[in-house]
Fold each of these.
Amino acid sequence: MYKNPSFRTPFDFIMEKTSDNQTERTPLLLITAAIEQGGRTMASLLRKGPLLGITGSAQIRNVQGEGVQTLDQIGQETFLGLFRRSRAVLSVLSEEAEMPEVLPCDEKTSLLVAMDPLDGSSNISVNAPIGSIFSIFRPPAPSSSSPEGLFLNASSPLLSAYLLYSVSTSLVLAFSGETRVFTLDPDTGEFLGDGSPWRFPDKGKIYSTNEAYLPRWEKPLQDYLSWIKKERNPSMILRYIGALVGDFHRNLLKGGIYLYPAEAGEKTSGKLRLLYEACPMAHIARNAGGIATDGKQDILTIVPRSVHQRVPLIVGSVDLVREFQERTGHPL
Ligand code: AHM
Ligand code: MG
């Protein structure tokens, strides 16, 4: 039996936090239910992975020139279908589609969804953690601008979420000043959590970054990493899963900092996309007492110029991110 007889669900969380916001309550409940259903579907497929022949490449490239995996396509179809059926989503922007897709909905109460349906694609074929990431925005007023304009003019996220498919399936939701962590019971299909807000631990000692790229980083970042490894006291430890959701989740639970900075050469704006990777993680971090920057400014203050815009991302425990900013010459 469960260790806690009074676990709470995402439904309870949204109900509790929208007691004075009846207008957005229904779309938020419908969208959260769609994310939960998508999580159940994906987790169930992933349990059989290679047996279903879904862990390989789709042999095509997406609009951003990246190789598409079969599970990228399955994630895209699964979540897009669920958001379409919810009739609470005005438009979906996805890593897997060039343009946002406008959906049938009740326009008065509908919201925008930006998503990375399958985060950490390179982990799929080796049975390592992967995830799905979502940010939910209010449409700008007036909401009659172009499909891209809706996302470029939206304010910072109203709600953010990620699913982490690993030893168990986690759902992390950030809304209205709180971040909560839920775990899927695969027998009942319920996501359950203890009903209390999650905060980044005060003291963290993990750094997560792909150190192989260090020669292409700017000098202040190289110096920072060298200081982390040789001089910082107390010393830090490296953990890198290679899926943003997995690395962020570890740091959220244990305390730490994740870095995907800009590089000389091909990745002058980093790798991660603002609207559906950096922004939701920044929002989840903020609601858990953490912080996210692009190295110079708070991620949540960046106004997007294009829907698939990339940004450097440094996110994690507030003390570690502040320390990073101070040592690289841009104190917060
Ligand atoms: P993806 O959306 O194609 O999976 O790319 C994003 C992923 C992140 O999850 C992860 O943090 C990063 O790419 C890893 O990149 P790298 O292999 O360059 O370290
Ligand atoms: Mg992705």
Amino acid sequence: AGAAEFVGSPLRKGAAAAEFARDLVAALSKTPRSIAPKYFYDAAGSALFDRICELPEYYPTRTEWRILTSHAHDIAQCMGSRADIVEFGAGSLAKIRLLLDAFVPRDAPRRYFPVDISAEHLDSAARKLHADYPQLSVQPVAADYMKEEQLAGLAASLEASSQRRVGFFPGSTIGNFDPDEAAAFLRLAARLLRGGGLLVGVDLVKEPQTLHRAYNDAQGVTAAFNLNLLRRANDELGADFDVKKFAHYAFYEPVKQRVEMHLLSLCAQTVRLAGREFAFEEGGSLHTENSYKFTIEGFRALAVSAGFVPGPVWTDEARLFSVHWLES
Ligand code: AVJ
């Protein structure tokens, strides 16, 4: 046991490209135009996201890291002895190391299932993690965790053992979901993790300038991340977006309490994709991401509505970010 092998139903490349094509055609065919942010994360997009996490303006990663470091012992206590850990949207598998290091060897988690949509990125990260934690069975799951059928293999692996299961969903990725989707995800997680719990990182509502800067960094990495969607559509789907003729636009929308990212057409232009033509007027938008911000009480109420019993919450001095333990 212990090798980094794929379990579950890996997204086959062809099927993934077909889904991207279908969703992008649908996105460009409706008004207003919008597409799910999961399509940012091909290998290049995941690497750009890792760079965002290092930016001086992007406080969430750094702040969450500090919270996890300061409370790692309490968190390990909540997770319990010899648990199976499922991480949703695991990315580069950096944060789990911090938690793993907080356990004494006899209580250390036994199996770790990082779930991520970006298979290549996940596979190499899983190999590195297993090399550094040889006692830990690392079982990457290349899947869209919003699709329960893609988690069937994972659910079966968890069921096959009597270990306690705990989830880890850091980074405020939950902020990408509309309120209905966030509740649906939490209900799915509560089912999968029954008898255990979920550790969730949640970005907080705050003064809008801080939010604005976090999504409009001076080096333009966030802009490159947003525009990468178009580059990816060109490479994978044979679309002909002229990436230079689109601009990154991100702003905080206080009524919905979310940062919105859009790609705006800098001129009137026509784009070809999958044998069709899509006209953009000058200033026309493709909405690429929402990043919802929460109050601590608001998030706890959402968790309760999804069937969790909220436990301790940890935050930083400036109350920029929060980490919640939820019992399932
Ligand atoms: C990974 C969804 C938490 O919303 O802050 C970072 C993605 N987008 N900069 C976020 C993102 C632009 C990030 N999440």
